[in-house]
From TrEMBL:
Top-rank taxon, per record: Eukaryota
GO cellular component, one term: mitochondrion
Entries under CDD domains matching the protein: NAD_bind_1_malic_enz
PANTHER family (UniProt xref): MALIC ENZYME-RELATED
Name assigned to this protein: Malic enzyme
SMART domains with a match to the protein in the record: malic, Malic_M
SUPFAM superfamilies referenced in this protein's UniProt entry, alphabetically: Aminoacid dehydrogenase-like, N-terminal domain, NAD(P)-binding Rossmann-fold domains
Annotated family: Belongs to the malic enzymes family.
């Protein structure tokens, strides 16, 4: 009875459970998860057609999972525990596998938090949250989002450091990828990455475990850092969990304790350095972008100082990458400094700075401050003069031998000293920043000196964890008499001093990196420059209120980080679209709406799609196959649309999507290829000839327009070029006097009397080229063909209509009635022609010469819009492959057997053109385009389906330790 009452109390409390942060977070996320009505609710007015189209393009779609029964319950991204409805339990095959009770997500959150708070220590809480993440992903992130301030120190610093130190004992389930020095090639690493179940990875957090927080070399135990970091990507930035991949590079460890730890999970060997180490990094970066795409974000985390800055400089302009220890720390510190300016009334350029600790974090902060000063009009040299850096050897001066390249610009021309207080006395700085991991370095004397020179000294003790901080918050407030503007790297409790309560600021990188990651991923930013981190810093600083500053809080509330991340992402988008470096296309009209539709939300959704009816007559014939969205660069080729729609749809979509119409553009290109080949015989360029088209549909106008483009590129005006084309349709010659003329025909209409007679037009125009696209069999009569031969030593006659029984003439007729002088092509194949003792092989203007190469080049080099210049390029490539021998026997196109090679040549020409014009989106540009294309094309030979195996060194495959055997005291123990 007593236990029943307790249960009643728990459930009753859970029903009323509403954490103070949950409501705001849930509302902002739910607003975009309830379908089109949610989008409508953002606006007081109805959505325009374009707004509705954009919303539908970017909104997340719900898809019923393939998993059923126990498989579904074992998948954390799908599992809802006892929150599954009865309908879902029955439909998804889990009815009876769960207890019969039903719980809301709020009740589940309450139960989790109650159990967490009962744990004896933070490590136990970490283990319990880790287990929850393995069971129920949405619930894990809901709990974390609702209790950011309470749980962030558990899932990340400082508790994650303790978890990493004990990782051999708490390891239960793999949560990332391990790449070792023994896997050091692109293909091997690629194979490992292919073992990861998610193919849509967009963000990788990478570590080699050499400098884990402030704990030193933890080797493979460092995997806990990328796991924790990506948890914050999701909880604080709204990055989708399926986009995230933690990776540890295991190159060994120099930590003797780990090498002798029987439970150590990594390679038992000394760290590899030098060329082999660098090759592993190069190979990993190449493999990860090969596997997941060139815009995959790779965040470097906890690399040693000797590597961190060097690797950032090496890769930042080649890949989408940043180093949070350098750039993230710099950004969050600058955010704090900008917030402090609201109290001191001084800008960054009006202050002097002393850094105790001169590693990557310190130089990153200094460089970002210099960038801000530079943007406000100060020279870089003068800005650098305001920064004084100290490392283990003391103040960095110009007289120091072998000075680090990152320190040169900040080195001072003053006597060296190792005394921090001496530097403070000499410089009298407004800002003192610690990043040394030397506990107690900011002594009472140092802090009192800072207060002596400033009404509001700025002191940032950034070293992690708290037992390595340069001073505590309490010491900072006590020894500056409460005037300090203080921030630390790890959280300190509230300080009570002189009757006031101070809430120390925590310069947590979590204010920065989730928003940077979200903006970079959503808007497909290729390179993350320092201006984006400065933008993030300003965004964070703008969120600090006057009320917060009055109690010493120089950073926003941790509970607001998710909203701040969204703001940072929007600011990044505005900046990058303005600078032309965002690659999401088309640009969303409402960036706020777009970002909110993309962020991960923690509320449960039904896993069963809504059903809907079809018209009864359509259900008799089966159902259409649903098409998944494939991305903005997906090529869509329009084929066999009616004339009334073909040209109209091409014009409508060609500048919005990656699309072409083969009937118009492909036909035009292959015909122009034939004409260019004919020029080798006639000796005349396209602009020196006149053209009569019998048939004026999309194919004919496409051919004419592509010819005009070629003439224009050779210096002829468009007007004069159009004058050389005469188009005839069912109503005869298209003239300017015709009423309701088709818009596509206007430029080609002639100011001469109309006529329906083709022979009359031939007699009047005396063209060099006659093209048929009318489907009127026999339209090119003997009289017409003889007239063409009368005016030209080598008349060009293309009878393009398909199939052969609709061709305007046969090949045999063309050769017979022109006495073998014709240059002939048809749309469908004709047999060889034997005439006057000669064998002629009629050309077939088959679009297959063009569209495969266009498609290959467009796909491989990610071309967004396919303009007519690409089709002209393809035509020239095809024409260049026609040999003199072929022309002698009337073949004006290459052999069909050569089409595959021609397609590769077209793709390479497209690549050269598009990289030159800056419209190729495959990055980085392959050095050898020919080799790249040939490695990408499909080949038909069978391959072994088993990856090549390879051995590791024997010492790396040793088992950790022998399992001790208990002594047998009794024969029954056996």
């Amino acid at each position: 009875m007593r236990s029943g009452k307790v249960a009643d109390v728990i459930i009753s409390s859970a029903r009323n459970y509403c954490p103070r942060t949950a409501q705001g977070i849930s509302t902002s996320m739910r607003r975009w998860s309830d379908g089109e009505d949610a989008a409508q609710s953002k606006y007081e007015r109805p959505l325009t057609e374009n707004e509705r189209r954009i919303y539908k393009l970017y909104r997340p779609e719900r898809v019923t999972p393939n998993e059923r029964s126990v498989d579904l319950l074992n998948k954390p991204c799908l599992n809802k525990g006892m929150a599954f409805s009865l309908y879902e339990r029955q439909y998804l095959g889990i009815h009876g596998l769960l207890p019969p009770a039903f719980m809301t997500q709020q009740q589940q959150c309450y139960r989790v938090m109650k159990k967490l708070r009962e744990q004896p220590n933070d490590l136990a809480r970490y283990i319990q949250l880790d287990s929850l993440q393995d069971r129920n992903e949405k619930l894990f992130y809901r709990v974390l989002c609702d209790h950011v301030a309470e749980l962030m120190p558990i899932v990340y610093t400082p508790t994650v450091g303790l978890a990493c130190q004990n990782f051999g004992y708490i390891y239960r389930k793999p949560k990332g990828i391990y790449v070792t020095i023994n896997d050091n090639s692109i293909s091997k690493i690629y194979q490992i990455l292919c073992n990861w179940p998610e193919t849509g990875v967009r963000a990788v957090v990478l570590t080699d475990g050499e400098r884990t927080l402030g704990l030193g070399d933890l080797g493979a135990y460092g995997i806990g850092i990328p796991v924790g970091k990506l948890s914050l990507y999701v909880a604080l930035g709204g990055v989708q969990p399926r986009w995230c991949l933690p990776v540890l590079l295991d190159v060994g460890t120099d930590n003797e304790q780990l090498l002798n730890d029987p439970f150590y999970i990594g390679l038992r060997r000394r760290r590899v350095r030098g060329k082999e180490y660098d090759a592993l990094l190069e190979n990993f970066m190449a493999a990860v972008t090969k596997r997941f795409g060139q815009n995959t974000l790779v965040q470097f985390e906890d690399f040693a100082s000797r590597n961190a800055h060097r690797l950032l400089q090496k890769f930042k302009d080649r890949y989408t990458t940043f180093n949070d220890d350098i750039q993230g720390t710099a950004s969050v510190v600058v955010a704090g400094l900008l917030a402090c300016n609201k109290v001191t009334g001084k800008s960054l350029s009006e202050q002097k700075y002393v850094f105790f600790g001169a590693g990557g974090a310190s130089t990153g902060i200094a460089e970002l401050c210099v960038r801000e000063m530079e943007m406000n009009g100060m020279s870089v040299e003068k800005a650098c003069d305001r920064f004084y850096l100290m490392d283990i050897d003391g103040l960095i001066t110009k007289s120091r031998p072998n000075i680090n390249p990152q320190h040169v610009k900040f080195a001072k021309n003053i006597p060296p000293t190792k005394s921090l207080i001496e530097v403070i006395r000499k410089v009298q700085p407004q800002v003192l920043i610690g990043a040394s991991t030397v506990h107690g370095a900011f002594t009472e004397e140092v802090l009192r000196a800072m207060a002596e020179y400033n009404p509001h000294p700025i002191v940032f003790a950034l070293s992690n964890p708290t037992d390595k901080s340069e001073c505590t918050a309490s010491e900072a407030y006590q020894f500056t008499n409460g005037t300090v503007l203080f921030a630390s790297g790890s959280p300190f409790p509230d300080v009570y001093f002189n009757g006031n309560i101070y809430k120390p600021g925590q310069g947590n990188n979590a204010y920065i990196f989730p928003g940077i990651a979200l903006g970079t991923i959503l808007f497909q930013i290729r390179h993350i420059n320092n201006d984006l981190f400065l933008l993030a810093a300003k965004t964070v600083a703008s969120c600090v209120t006057e009320e917060s500053l009055q109690i010493g809080r120089i950073y926003p509330c941790l509970n607001d980080i998710r909203e701040i991340s969204i703001k940072i992402a929007i600011e990044i988008a505005n900046y990058c679209y303005k600078k032309g470096i965002a690659n999401l296309y088309p640009q969303p009209e409402d960036l706020d709406q777009y970002v909110r539709t993309q962020v991960y939300h923690t509320e449960y959704e039904t896993l069963v799609n809504r059903t809907y009816d079809w018209p009864a007559q359509d259900m008799r014939h089966g159902f259409p196959v649903p098409v998944d969205p494939f991305g903005q660069n997906t090529l869509v080729q329009f084929e066999d649309f009616a004339s009334r729609n073909a040209h109209r749809l091409l014009q409508k979509f060609k500048d919005r999507y990656t699309t072409f119409n083969d009937d118009i553009q492909g036909t035009a290109s292959v015909v122009v290829a034939g004409l260019l080949a004919c020029n080798k015989v006639t000796g005349k360029s396209l602009s020196e000839q006149k053209y009569v088209f019998f048939g004026a549909g999309g194919a004919s106008t496409g051919i004419a327009e592509l010819c005009v483009r070629e003439m224009e590129m050779n210096g002829m005006s468009v007007e004069k070029a159009c004058d050389r084309f005469y188009l005839m349709d069912i109503d005869g010659l298209i003239t300017k006097s015709r009423p309701n003329i088709n818009p596509q025909h206007v430029k080609f209409a002639k100011n001469i009397p109309p006529t329906k007679s083709l022979i009359e037009v031939i007699r009047k125009v005396q063209p060099q080229v006659l093209i048929g696209a009318s489907t009127v069999h026999g339209a090119f009569t003997e009289e017409v063909l003889r007239a063409m031969a009368e005016y030209n030593p080598h008349p060009i006659v293309f009878a393009l209509s398909n199939p052969t029984d609709k061709s305007e003439c046969t090949a045999s007729e063309a050769y017979q009635f022109t006495n073998g002088t014709v240059l002939f092509a048809s749309g469908s194949p004709f047999p060889d022609v034997y005439f006057n003792g000669n064998v002629y092989k009629p050309g077939q203007g088959n679009n297959a010469y063009i569209f495969p190469g266009i498609a290959l080049g467009t796909i491989l080099f990610q071309i967004r819009h396919i303009n007519n210049d690409l089709f002209l390029l393809a035509a020239k490539t095809v024409a260049s492959c026609v040999t003199e021998e072929s022309l002698q026997i009337g073949r004006i196109y290459p052999c069909l057997n050569d089409i595959r090679e021609i397609s590769i040549k077209i793709a390479i020409e497209i690549a050269n053109y598009c990289y030159k014009k800056g419209i190729a989106n495959l990055y980085p540009q392959p050095e050898d385009l020919d080799q790249y294309v040939r490695t990408q094309v499909y080949h038909t030979e069978y391959e072994t389906l088993v990856n090549r195996t390879y051995d590791w060194p024997a010492q790396d495959m040793r088992h950790g330790f022998p399992v001790p055997v208990d002594p047998c005291d009794d024969v029954d123990d056996n």
